[in-house]
Amino acid sequence: WxxxxxxxxxxxxxxxxxxVADLSVSYPFTSTLRGFVRIENLADRRYVAxxxxxxxxRLGTPFSAFAGLRWELR
Length: 74
Prior knowledge:
two-stranded antiparallel sheet; mainly beta; single chain; 3-stranded antiparallel sheet
């Protein structure tokens, strides 16, 4: 949860409050091999991440999913 903030020092460029949920799960296959899945912006909410007034509004990360394997050498 991010409460309302301002993109400039004069408090004229508001950045609305927003809530973004992420999910991360991992599973150990062996003592050295682990699988993982990470999802960012689970609900695919569109929100303003930055409003500096010098550039166009920067939107936050859209729905993104990552999966992979992590191998740890011991």
